[in-house]
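User: Good morning. I'm curious how A1CAB would be positioned relative to this chain. Could you predict the structure with it bound?
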Amino acid sequence: MTIAIFGAGVMGETLLSGLIRSGRAPGDLVITERRADRAAELEAKYGISVVDNAAAAESADVLVLVVKPQDMRSLLAEIAPAIAVGNVVISLAAGITTEVLEGGLPAGTSVVRVMPNTPALVDQGMAALSRGAHCTDEHMAIASDLLASCGKVIEVPESYQDAVTAISGSGPAYVFYVVEAMIEAGVVLGLPRATATELTVQTLYGAATMIRQTGTHPTVLREQVTSPGGTTAAALRILDDHRVRAAFVSAVEAAAERSGELSRS
Ligand SMILES: NC(=O)C1=CN([C@@H]2O[C@H](COP(=O)(O)OP(=O)(O)OC[C@H]3O[C@@H](n4cnc5c(N)ncnc54)[C@H](O)[C@@H]3O)[C@@H](O)[C@H]2O)C=CC1
Ligand SMILES: O=C(O)[C@@H]1CCC=N1
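Assistant: Good morning! Here's the predicted structure, ligand included:
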């Protein structure tokens, strides 16, 4: 089975590297990339041939579209003539619906809409898949296998996708933002930057592992840290005063709204 990845930017390379780590033969993988310098970089790094979109579409059984939402319609027009019966088209683009994908491809094409995230680079990705109108269980299994090479996979109704994008698609950026803020806070308190970074990163990793391994509700875990009259209670009062919880809800709502706008643009 030949897999073609169209658009090898951040997410395209993340998926490509995951497929290689999971043992896919480089000979079964093809990539396309509009920027010549980026194409040369990837050829050198992975030993994979970069070809044009038409050639990739001709040779592939599974086509994975990883361009920006704004570039999707023109890409669909380029690859549509080469789509054959039995091909599966998988889109990783935020906000592009299966209806838009199907509308730009030959009638009856099997499409899958996926929202992945960048922790796939370290095989800890979260990918949510939604099937198009002509997608069979067999096609879903192909898409699921592909994404499972670099993390967890779930199937969701397409109506969830804007919310999924706002939580797990954009989510790593919120976490990195909090990490940046904690490191800066450590530096404000006089810690060397390297020490503040090590303390913050291990704390995040430990807390995430605790949630996963204990299955305990995060409220209970937070209460276990919060001694009466202690340091944590003092800190949390300031976060509440600044309405940080409400800010998170508004931020995630804004991301979901933007995902919806992308499908209409
Ligand atoms: N970066 C992220 O965390 C996530 C990104 N996504 C989705 O993945 C898609 C790609 O995002 P990024 O990788 O971050 O963007 P990017 O800008 O890093 O990569 C897109 C790549 O596609 C190339 N490209 C554009 N049009 C092309 C064409 N017609 N033929 C060949 N190559 C073409 C560009 O030169 C660029 O290298 C987007 O649709 C985004 O919504 C989804 C989840 C997470
Ligand atoms: O910011 C974006 O639009 C993309 C989709 C989810 C994460 N990055």
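The longest strand covers residues 125-131. Residues 94, 165, 169-170 surround A1CAB (ligand 2) (CB under 6 Å).
Let me know if you'd like a different ligand tried.
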